[in-house]
Amino acid sequence: MKILEERILKDGVVRAGNVLKVDCFLNHQMDISLFQDMAKEWKKRFADKKINKILTIEASGIAIACIAATEFDNIPVVFAKKNESLNIDGEIYSSKVSSFTKKRVYDVFVSKKYLTPEDHVLIIDDFLAVGSALNGLIDIVEQSGATVEGLGIAIEKGFQGGGDKLREKGYQLESLAIVDVLDAENGTIKFRE
Amino acid sequence: MKILEERILKDGVVRAGNVLKVDCFLNHQMDISLFQDMAKEWKKRFADKKINKILTIEASGIAIACIAATEFDNIPVVFAKKNESLNIDGEIYSSKVSSFTKKRVYDVFVSKKYLTPEDHVLIIDDFLAVGSALNGLIDIVEQSGATVEGLGIAIEKGFQGGGDKLREKGYQLESLAIVDVLDAENGTIKFRE
């Protein structure tokens, strides 16, 4: 998606350790007009899918998932939580996720009330690298008996391989920008054609 | 706001310890159409204010803040983060917040890049009880030299007093539902007139 790639080139900052900082428009300060364009693009790419629910993960997935929902007839958005909360009771689906940026493993969970075998789910997240968070969300949807209709990612770090593994498994993965080269030394960012 | 009050009466669950669970439409599964109605109501109530940025706090504030932004000409939304992250560098504004549901104190922070003395800020959050999170956000805005134009809350637990203290200080606080009685024994919820 050209406008997202241009924005990454304009405002993204490359850091050592394969880190791409986009906190000025994606995951700290958020550009809602850009998110609306991204939502329209996902709507187009998943036009033939019957989707009735969006699943994402806290925190920065929530913003793009909610704006995406406005293009999908305001279907409900569920976000997977990362820490056990006193406010969640009853049964949950859970999975283990390891964070690339925070260097730790944590549990993510969704209340069983909000995913059922009747659901057709679009999973949305901001970043895809090795795919740990996304695989955790897929695991949770499959535990529930719901159907994964597609995966919508803002920025995929293609060179880390998580996306291609999911494509090989047959999932429709729509990453709006796929970064194949990220070079901290000279700040180079190259996108997949 | 009548439709939010009706939704709380229909789907909210009262738990011991002044807990009001609204995770089926507000902070786990999210009703985007309801959030759009809430956004329109805040737009109306803050019609005379010049607002150029929305500030919220992760995680559940993000959804309503982003949908709110769509009613305020898609102004940028910034969310305060709760834990130090390897992806945030440079200088930050920070404040201490104690969580009512999680019974702990944590730091919240915003990068100095995203709040400046020129900003006129609407602070949005899902819940207001004693006001710890909201006071932390106000503290951060005031550290930056920006102006707090208003406070938009979905559900205020009026009987816990945080909201009235902020009104006494002169802030324009617009809570869309103010719960004045929450009785776990018989499940009673009463709203302020």
Describe this structure in words.
- The structure is a homodimer of 193-residue chains.
- With 193 residues, chain A is an alpha/beta fold.
- Chain A has one domain (2-191): Rossmann fold (3-Layer(aba) Sandwich).
- Chain A has helices at 2-11, 32-45, 60-71, 132-144, 162-168; strands at 13-15, 19-21, 29-30, 53-57, 77-80, 92-99, 104-111, 120-128, 147-157, 173-183, 188-191.
- In chain A, the strands form three sheets. In chain A, strands 5-4-8-9-10-11 form a six-stranded mixed β-sheet, sandwiched between helices. A two-stranded antiparallel ribbon of chain A has the order 1-2.
- The first copy, chain A, is globular.
- The model of chain A has no long low-confidence stretch (mean pLDDT 94).
- The interface between A and B is large, with 43 and 43 residues.
Question: Mind sketching the topology for me?
Answer:
Two copies of one chain form a homodimer.
Chain A: H1 2-11, E1 13-15, E2 19-21, E3 29-30, H2 32-45, E4 53-57, H3 60-71, E5 77-80, E6 92-99, E7 104-111, E8 120-128, H4 132-144, E9 147-157, H5 162-168, E10 173-183, E11 188-191
Parallel strand pairs in A: 4-5, 4-8, 8-9, 9-10
Antiparallel strand pairs in A: 1-2, 6-7, 10-11
Helix pairs in contact in A: 2-3
